[in-house]
Amino acid sequence: MIKVSGLTKYYGSKKAIEDISFELEDGKIYGFLGPNGAGKSTTMNIMTGYIGATSGTVEINGYDILDEPEKAKKNIGYLPEIPPLYPDMTVEEYLLFAAELKSVPRKERKAHVREIEEKTGISEVRGRLIKYLSKGYRQRVGFAQALVSYPDVIILDEPTVGLDPIQLNEMRDLIRSLREKHTVILSSHIMQEVNAVCDTILIINDGRLVANDSTDNLTVSNAASSVLNYRFKSDEKTVREILSSFNYVKINNLSEENGSVVCELETTLDADKLQNDIFFAFADKKIVILESRVMTKSLEDIFIDYTNSSDGGKE
User: Fold this and answer.
1) CATH class assigned to 2-221
2) Strands across the sheet with 29-33, in order?
3) The whole model's pTM is what?
4) Using one digit for the tens of pLDDT, what is the confidence trace for 151-177?
5) Is 226-295 a CATH 3.30.70.260 domain?
6) What's the CA angle centered on 117, arms 122 and 163, to 5 degrees?
7) Residue 248 pLDDT more than 50?
């Protein structure tokens, strides 16, 4: 369990974050989103004990990150955007070093590190110096160090940067598997990635938390109206006449195309009701519906709606 209460941070007179509060449950993956300069990195750095807050508290499994930093940090694995690697160490030397720092018992260290190497797909480079690895492999090594000692909370800042498409899918599968035993906080600018792996989304903008809900709820609650695309086996005049009988439907466009009629409809009512009404109205006229599609807001659209007031500054 992570509890963040009234978190505020100023750098001199400049506000980075203000009065941020949220609670994260065990066994879930949380997407932490925001434009550049919104305060994401500041928040994560405070949560991991890297920097202090001006005011507010962070509790990790009941331990205050400021008052009991050693106990709190034992519960955290962190992959910052730039992995904290030692280029003159081999991969295995580095991970064994991380295991020692995280108090993994000496007798268990090598087996523990080998297991994590397998999980993150870096076994084949365990004997190579980190400075000779590709960017993608370096990212994986950084991910591996975050898993050392299998902490309850894993914080990942842009974990898939530099990975090719195959590695990207493998990493997403690995992140999904972590929810079985860990709470995961994932910061990413790749909306498809967040949508694919996260249970809940937190959006921060201009130093304040502006959204905290499940992906499904965010999509539903931000859809003021539903947009539907249709294709009918008919002519434009007939289709327009039928649709005009629905006073709760706005016709955004309607045209004939390749022997059929395509149109985009918008309604403030339930999309299922509109689909049902259209089905029976056109069936009554013996007109075939060739295509019916409900268009919902993407996570990217929602993100833009919440953050379009950002000034685009840098943290």
Assistant:
1) alpha beta
2) 76-79, 153-157, 183-187, 29-33, 200-205, 208-214
3) 0.76
4) 999 999 988 877 888 888 888 888 998
5) yes
6) 40
7) yes
